[in-house]
Amino acid sequence: MHIHPNMKMSDLVQSDFELLAVLQRLKIPFGFKDKTIQTVCKEQGIDLHFFLNLVKWFHERDFFPGETLMNHPVKWLVKYLRSTHSCYVDYYIPRIENEIVQMESFDHSAGHNMQLMLKFFREYITEFSSHIQLEEEKIFPYILRLEENLAKEAPDQDFWEKIQGYTIKDFLDEHSDIEEKLVDLRNILLKYLAPPSDNCIFTNVLVEIFRLGNDLNDHTILEENVLIPQVLKLEEEFKKKFPG
Ligand SMILES: [Fe+2]
Ligand SMILES: [Fe+2]
Predict the structure, then answer these.
(1) pTM for this prediction
(2) What CA–CA distance (Å, rounded) separates 69 from 226?
(3) Which of 67, 112, 163, 167 lies at 20 to 30 Å from 14 by C-alpha?
(4) 36 near 5, Cβ under 8 Å?
(5) pLDDT (tens digit, 9 = 90+) per residue, 67-98?
């Protein structure tokens, strides 16, 4: 499918339903009628090229527009990533947790295994939450201030001091892999646990864990291959513009 600005937004979504997630994270309301991509983006205040680059990547997969995405203001990507965090925290994670709880109550023979699964998943939630919290409370605010300050005639004194001893590289080195534990959980469920009598919910949990894992993978690619390199460039520009 060739995605272009004059294509109807509804045709885009119908040809690849997974793209609904991108629209939702950009907070584009559904109900497009016959409006084109260009019109919807304009009405929602979303840069057309930023939108096209993102959906093309999600749709085509064989081409990663890293360089191109880096040419947009970093605050747009931060907004997108934040919105993705909310999806995980408010929807995906609690839903999977509830389903494991349900499985635990369904079948007593599998109950013990499900208790272990639940324990494992809750440990994962703790790890996941601190990962998200670090990004939301420290990393993203730093990035937004960097971009804001770079545009100023003179940077805020406190920010100038902060950046003297800090670089986003420190964060990248510690950016933990939040997909790995999920893969472990998936493998245990798939390879070693007998499904409880309600096989439907068991299969559904597996599908949802797969989905979340893939989604997190994309999220990490955007953070490590677009966001961080872009911030490194901004830091360099900042240091050139405001030398110590
Ligand atoms: Fe993140
Ligand atoms: Fe992350």
Answers:
(1) 0.92
(2) 7
(3) 67
(4) yes
(5) 888 999 999 999 999 999 999 999 999 999 99
Write down the pLDDT at residue 109. Answer: 62
**Maximum distance among all Cα pairs of the chain, rounded to whole angstroms:** 68
Q: Where are the domains of the chain?
A: 9-63, 72-241
What pLDDT score does 193 carry?
78
pLDDT of residue 117: 86
CA of 77, nearest ligand number: 1
> DSSP letter string over 191-232?
IIPPP-S-HHHHHHHHHHHHHHHHHHHHHHHHIIIIIHHHHH
Q: Which two tokens stand for residue 149?
A: 């300050």
Task: Kindly report the number of other CB atoms within 10 A of residue 180's CB atom.
Answer: 11
Q: How remote is the CA of residue 104 from the centroid of ligand 1, in Å?
A: 30
Ligand nearest to the CA of 81: 1
CB 236 within 8 A of CB 220: no
- 102 alpha carbon – ligand 1 mean position (Å): 28
CA 79 to ligand 1 centroid distance, Å = 11
How many angstroms does the Cα of residue 39 sit away from the middle of ligand 1? 30
